[in-house]
Design brief:
The complex is a heterodimer. By secondary structure, chain A is mainly alpha-helical. Chain A is built from 12 helices and no strands. Chain A is globular and about 75 Å long. Chain B is mostly helical. Helices cover about 75% and strands about 0% of the residues of chain B. Chain B is globular. Classes of the chains: A mainly alpha, B mainly alpha. Chain B: Keywords: Cell membrane, Membrane, Transmembrane, Transmembrane helix, Transport.
Chain lengths: ~300, ~325
């Protein structure tokens, strides 16, 4: 919990424990969440530290060793060009998880901004919630595909093929997935606004900006954190879906979705190649979903301490 | 209730107009040229005439209004003609696909049965499986059945359709050659054998889609049942001496179905969206596959029309969900 210093509880805590210890205690009791956290940590470590230990380049072509099965030299085997699948899985995981985290950040920032503003300022509420409803009514997957199709060339030219696709996919996913967060946050803010401590803060003349930053935001942090966690999962799935439809990253810059897509062509001869990237995506999403589940329970003070 | 429905319907109109405008403006940025696949030997003046005929050089608002007129006026007229045998739409220009050189709606009508069969059946199967699982999970909370149910629905949430579909192909089409991995649209069902074949080729895509529906709905059903099981009226019903079956299936189930029914209504458009990937995997040439090929081929009228139809479905199902909620739950009155 890196945000802890900012969030010292308002009432003095005699035991000297911050509320985050209570959250952790509750989180620990949720076995699935703990297991999910361990798996997610393992996957993140594997894709970040893994390439330092497993030094075969993911793009290194060893054409003589192509299509080889699992061996000591290549634990997951090699693909049709003789590239090591384990190295490609690690490289792909880095991109997939980076896309998931960044897209989640964008969507949570947007959602929180719109939710807080529309809950706090009555005048903007109608417009912003109308916008949210409009976005919810858009057919998102087709629009995502169209967006990727339209802007891929332009962005690739200005940022290079890898970085351009990354920016495009991350912002496209972020822009189309903030609505749930905005709705939840707005609801929480509307409820908070009626509370006495907000009235007290207002009566001593706190300006709106500080009111939001000091009083509102820390109190809506738990739903934001839960939807952020779940947002990682959706972002990873969406990116893989785009890659699977052939509209994601270029083939020499693999993600898990792209690896799965490439492996489909060899489904009959080498079905195990589909298995690894699919398993990685599913495991990551499963673990993240379990973490979200546990966080939701742990951050709910009505459940905590029961 | 009627005034509410009417007001919501009126409100849906500006929403839909705005959505169609957004889709149009987004597509308007498309860099592709619809005449790019024509031979280079066409002289420039002929090419220009073709551009004029397609209306490519007119300003954006003219093209948008033309599309809107075709979608909201010409196509309904064509439909009326087709049903009643009249000829209102004679001589009117319909929305024409650049890729197929045929009216967009004719192609959609061709593709619709496949999507409806596969997606609709999958949704039905998903609902039929999800409801009993949700009910039993809630009634026996924290039992082994509930734990397994939770785990399976977590898997249904987490395993994306492009992986579960491929896994099914690996297991049930390659390792055990029980089902075909490709959906054959040309199959004509006229006897028992071809009917069996139709069932076999529908099994895998329906299973993939149904897994997703089951995962979400069974969780929802369970939560809704749990909410209701602790209410006082349940205790009253038991105290009156009603059998457990009646308490559960009549009293609790009817009350817990209220939110579940609306979720079922809300899920219909998302199933159409999710079917894009499933149709791609099993090569079902339905609406989703049509959209993908249209996007690849830069067929803007087709993309525009299909995306808008999806949007109409979403808005309509939202409306139906709201109205259903009011109808089923007498505590909720919108007026």
């Amino acid at each position: 919990m890196t945000d802890a210093p900012m969030l010292e509880p308002v009432k003095p805590d005699t035991s000297g424990r911050s509320q985050w210890w209570d959250v952790w205690d509750q989180f620990k009791t949720h076995k699935g969440a703990l297991f999910g956290a361990a798996v997610f940590l393992f996957i993140v470590l594997a894709v970040t530290i893994g390439p330092l230990l497993w030094t075969i380049e993911p793009t290194f072509i060893d054409i003589r060793a192509r299509n080889s099965g699992p061996s000591l030299a290549h634990p997951f085997g090699t693909d049709q060009l003789g590239r090591d699948i384990m190295a490609r899985m690690m490289a792909g995981g880095q991109v997939s998880i980076a896309v998931g985290l960044t897209a989640m950040l964008i969507s949570v920032l947007l959602g929180t901004l719109i939710g807080v503003v529309s809950g706090f300022f009555k005048r903007l509420d109608g417009v912003l919630m109308g916008l949210t409803d409009l976005f919810l009514a858009l057919p998102l997957l087709p629009l995502l595909l169209v967006m990727v199709m339209l802007f891929r060339e332009t962005l690739s030219r200005s940022f290079g093929p890898e970085m351009g696709t990354f920016i495009l996919i991350v912002s496209a996913i972020g822009v189309t997935s903030w609505m749930q967060t905005a709705r939840i946050v707005r609801g929480e803010v509307l409820a908070l606004k009626e509370r006495e401590f907000v009235l007290a803060a207002r009566s001593i003349g706190t300006p709106s900006r500080r009111m939001i930053l000091r009083h509102i935001l820390p109190n809506v942090l738990s739903p934001i954190m839960v939807s952020a966690t779940l947002g990682i999962a959706t972002a990873i799935i969406t990116e893989s879906a785009l890659s699977f439809l052939g509209l994601g990253f270029p083939p020499d810059f693999p993600t898990w979705g792209r690896l799965l897509f490439d492996a489909i062509d060899y489904l009959q001869q080498y079905p195990e190649r589909v298995f690894w990237p699919g398993l990685a995506i599913s495991l990551t999403v499963l673990s993240v979903n379990y973490i979200g589940d546990g966080l939701r329970d742990a951050l709910d003070p009505r459940i905590r301490g029961r | 209730m009627l005034t509410f429905t009417f007001r919501r319907l009126l409100l849906a109109i500006p929403t839909l107009v705005l959505i169609s405008l957004i889709i149009f403006l987004l597509l308007d940025l498309a860099p592709g040229d619809p005449l790019a696949d024509q031979p280079l030997s066409i002289p420039p003046e002929v090419r220009q005439k073709m551009r004029d005929a397609l209306g490519l050089d007119s300003p954006a608002y003219v093209r948008y209004l033309l599309w809107a007129k075709q979608f909201f006026w010409v196509e309904p007229l064509v439909f009326v003609d087709w049903v009643a045998g009249t000829s209102f739409s004679e001589g009117m220009q319909r929305i024409v696909s650049w890729q197929f050189r045929a009216p967009v709606f004719d192609i959609i009508i061709q593709r619709l049965p496949q999507t409806l069969w596969v997606v609709g059946l999958a949704y039905l199967v998903g609902v039929m499986i999800a409801l009993p699982i949700g009910i039993i999970s809630a009634y026996k909370q924290y039992s082994w059945f509930d734990q397994i149910g939770t785990f399976i629905s977590m898997i249904g949430f987490s395993v994306p359709p492009f992986f579960s579909g491929v896994l099914m192909i690996v297991f049930f089409a390659i390792m055990l050659p029980w089902f075909p991995s490709i959906y054959d649209t040309t199959l004509v069902v006229n006897d028992f054998e071809s009917f069996g074949q139709q069932i076999r080729q529908m099994t895998l895509p329906v299973m993939v889609l149904a897994l997703q529906t089951t995962a979400q709905l069974s969780r929802f059903m369970r939560a809704s049942m749990l909410d209701n099981l602790n209410h006082d009226y349940v205790r009253t019903a038991r105290a009156k001496g009603m059998t457990e079956k009646v308490v559960l299936l009549v009293h609790v189930l009817r009350n817990s179905m209220i939110p579940v029914v609306t979720v079922i209504a809300l899920g219909i458009p998302s199933i159409f969206g999710g079917a894009i990937i499933t149709e791609q995997i099993f090569k079902v040439n339905g609406l989703g596959q049509l959209l993908i090929t249209a996007i690849y081929a830069n067929d803007l009228p087709m993309v525009q029309t299909l995306a808008f139809i999806f949007a109409v479905l979403i808005v309509l199902c939202n409306l139906i969900a709201d109205v259903l909620y009011g109808l089923l739950d007498p505590r909720i009155r919108y007026d």
